[in-house]
Amino acid sequence: MLANRAAHTADMRTDVDLVWRAKRIEHRLRFGHPAAIQHLDRERRRASFAPGAVFAVLRWTGNTYGTTSSRIDILRAVGHGEGFTTVPLVAPGAAVLLSLTAWPKIERALQAIDAVEALGIDPADVAPDHWLHIHNRLSVGETPRRYTPGRHQAWLKRRKIAL
Q1: Which of 2, 4, 70, 135 is deepest in the core (most CB within 10 A)?
Q2: Residue 15's domain spans which residues?
Q3: Domain count, the chain
Q4: Sign of the torsion angle spanned by Cα atoms 8, 50, 52, 131
Q5: What is the pTM of this model?
Q6: 41, HSE (Cβ side, Cα atoms, 13 Å)
């Protein structure tokens, strides 16, 4: 029984359905490292993430008059037995680190991601609490603190100790 549980945990993954229909729907990964990508058809792909992986999904839909909705989610794939939140097109769900709608807030979140990349740091490796901080500050219209190399080093040390 223990071997089956270990095998199930190893097989546990978070699947994200990505869709692209020209000028109508675009669901794409902004960052993250899928363990696998499955091409379902010309318009649809499924990205699978291992437990603990952090990734961002950017979504927008539009019609002949322009964009009708937009959303960005920064998520952490969960492992067996972990709690999660259901998120559209994400199965079974994920830990939500950031979730924003409306283009002005999304644009600021994208700027925060760009700032991390400008430091030479992969956004998927950033301390998860930084994305929570970005979410909280942008949700109320405040300016978030910048991520720094010193903070990143502290996170890497903290993560190493936790293992």
Answers
A1: 135
A2: 2-162
A3: 1
A4: negative
A5: 0.89
A6: 4
